[in-house]
């Protein structure tokens, strides 16, 4: 059985390379996790520019690989298998990572696994908390995705039970940050500002929570618009904008809906473990409210540490290790990127 798995992630604006060791008992040990981010290059545009991201991946790939192997004290000849994000993501960015991984796999004559970025966000939790109980429920919250997923088999059976019908939670954070003149990406500055604010100051709407709305789908577009309209109204009246109160009230609305639906989904399904992953999982109010509500419902909550929540190569290597352990067939070397890869497809 292969022992050292290399993971390559390039779906958006982070170039990630991770190295893990798969042990005989199926546990996965993190050896290295190196990331090169191009976020500063996108900040002035208020969002990720695909062409800029692709060029940044191209420039960062080899240096990031070298740093990962240096951190792990390994060489390329130690690699037994390679996993790479095949989708979803930005087409050009994905192609850089897939091309690099194919080249390394061909040169080293090791199997290649083209994997799903979203499932990687779930698999990364096993690096910190050990094997994932099955079934489990995963709440994936990032800049591009907000989904509730039932996990029956991390290597092969993931079922979507709910998703956003418009903006993802992370997108709403970025857009609200822009309204409040806070830096991009919006998650950390809003979280910081919210700590000084009153979450009950403004009664922002909770999207998709009406009696006729789908129980486990999400919507954050209306919330984003409500914040913008509130700020515009205050400005029209010549009032100073209470940034901390707006940030806290907005963040409370997001965390309230996410945690309420996740806990209800777990309870209704009889599932005892909830994993929250993705970049927004690092948000202090989301994790805090989730911990409170999961404790009240008797549900085990697992949240990876913040560095593992954001896009990284370690999560792809971890998923690759689970595929190897399950005896899954490797991907062909003519593997291509799929920007719209469905979450139900774990390995291409």
UniProtKB/TrEMBL annotation:
SUPFAM superfamilies xrefs: Actin-like ATPase domain
Protein name per UniProt: tRNA N6-adenosine threonylcarbamoyltransferase
Record function comment: Required for the formation of a threonylcarbamoyl group on adenosine at position 37 (t(6)A37) in tRNAs that read codons beginning with adenine. Is involved in the transfer of the threonylcarbamoyl moiety of threonylcarbamoyl-AMP (TC-AMP) to the N6 group of A37, together with TsaE and TsaB. TsaD likely plays a direct catalytic role in this reaction.
GO BP terms, alphabetized: proteolysis; tRNA threonylcarbamoyladenosine modification
Positions that bind Fe cation: 117, 121, 311
A Pfam family recorded for this sequence: TsaD
Domain Gcp-like, chain residue ranges per copy: 29-317
Location of this chain's protein in the cell: Cytoplasm
Keyword Metal-binding among UniProt keywords: yes
UniProt EC number: 2.3.1.234
Family membership: Belongs to the KAE1 / TsaD family.
Any single Gene Ontology cellular-component annotation: cytoplasm
Reported cofactor(s): Fe(2+)
UniProt keyword annotations, A-Z: Acyltransferase, Cytoplasm, Hydrolase, Iron, Metal-binding, Protease, Transferase, tRNA processing
Molecular function as annotated in GO: iron ion binding; peptidase activity; tRNA N(6)-L-threonylcarbamoyladenine synthase activity
